[in-house]
Amino acid sequence: MVGAIGGEQILNMGSGCQYVGLVLHEFGHAIGYFHEHNRPDRDDVVDIKWDNVQYGFKDAFYKYTFDEADVQGFKYDLTSIMHYENSAFTNGYCRPTMLVKNDPSYEVTPVYLREFSPQDIQKINKLYSCQTTQLPPTECVCKDKYPKCPEWKTWGECHQNMMWMTTNCPKSCRTCGEPPSDCQDVYPVACEKWGKDGECDNNPMWMIEHCKRTCKECTGPTQLPGTCQDKYDKCPAMKTSGECHKNMMWMNTNCPKSCRICGEPPSDCQDLYPVACEKWGKDSECAKNPIWMNENCKRTCKQCTGPTQPPLTGATQPPIPPLPGTTQPPLPGTTQAPIPSLPGTTQPPQPPQPTTQPSGDCKDVYPDQCPTWKTYKWCEKDQVDYMAKVCKKTCGFCGGSGNCKDVYPQYCPGYKQNGMCTDPNYLDYCKDVCKYTCGYCS
């Protein structure tokens, strides 16, 4: 029964249901709440995939009218203990029955791993006119009993071993009434791995935006009102790598001082290809190929005050960018380098010829040279990371578009061929980095 019926109401939990989250869910029904995804306004937030629902269970997804349901003035809550997970009552492995409309990749945590959300508590207090609006206070100060509690939390023990952890590590598991942090990683599994690989420094702009927690950017912007300041310490480094031009909108908002948009005249002395120009400069291309380099790599070739010598003669083509450690195309039979492996793998999967189709904004940096490089099998072997940057279209490394794209389009087809898209050991990782290839966009 839903709601108080007078006297005692016995709740029976079947075998396999002995989880705190499931018990709280059933108690939620007993005190008067039905499922969150049955709210009258649910179509504004989630999309029900009716074709994926098991036969005989579609009634679990029907919505009420406003005459039948009282939402108590609260907004839709994806974290409510009364909300089903994405694949509840699915008719096939990993087929979603519900997707969040503004972010189809959003994962609604399974009920058995959850507790009452802050809004659940507020709603119950309002329904029963309780005076308190938070969890009961702890006995004294909210402290962890063991120094390793924060570490155990990062391992997922707050959910996997909930009863013991909430008793012994209440501070780390945030069971003392504190509101949950809004500083989260967009890709929790992958961000942790990328952080360990040094990507917060190697690729700061993207990582700060998508992996805030891992990169320790949880304090938020530091810009003062009325002042021209960068929001992040890494802004000067991002400027030197050419991000002010490559990612103008994000950089102008977050790094205005470094990008000189606060009134100072911008310098017209820039490299058109910041990363490549720096490398070509180190390879002495300013001297070997001065006409093209002085025009396209002014900053690297120190041509910022204008030409001070007669016109030069020589090559007028951009240098053919050599790849790391190569001086000529690989010969037939060259041993293929392994691609990055996931934690715990013993043999990295070998990528097949990419099959993804390029999107409209998928272009080659070097359209004339890329087809030739492809014949050297650079799209498949040691140079695959480089080719993913400069020959996306030719190599077929576009990997989707918009919110539906691969982080590693050059490797995802190989992951899929080796069954990692559905392997429980790599499923979460592939959902983060190969959502287009693995079919996790919808």
From TrEMBL:
Tagged with keyword Disulfide bond: yes
Catalytic residues (UniProt): E26
Keywords assigned by UniProt, alphabetized: Disulfide bond, Hydrolase, Metal-binding, Metalloprotease, Protease, Toxin, Zinc
Biased composition (Pro residues): 318-332, 346-355
Cofactor: Zn(2+)
Gene Ontology terms, MF aspect: metalloendopeptidase activity; toxin activity; zinc ion binding
Cysteine pairs bridged by disulfides in the record: C142-C176, C228-C262
A matching Pfam family: ShK
Record's cofactor remark: Binds 1 zinc ion per subunit.
InterPro entries: MetalloPept_cat_dom_sf, Peptidase_M12A, ShKT_dom
Residues annotated as binding Zn(2+): H25, H29, H35
The enzyme's E.C. designation: 3.4.24.-
EC main group: hydrolase
Biological process per Gene Ontology, one example term: proteolysis
Tagged with keyword Hydrolase: yes
Residues that span the membrane, as ranges: none
Boundaries of every Peptidase M12A domain copy: 1-131
Region described as Disordered: spans on this chain: 312-362
UniProt xrefs under PANTHER family: DISCOIDIN, CUB, EGF, LAMININ , AND ZINC METALLOPROTEASE DOMAIN CONTAINING, METALLOENDOPEPTIDASE
Name of the featured protein: Metalloendopeptidase
Upper lineage: Eukaryota, Metazoa, Cnidaria, Anthozoa, Hexacorallia
Gene from which this protein is expressed: nas-15_4
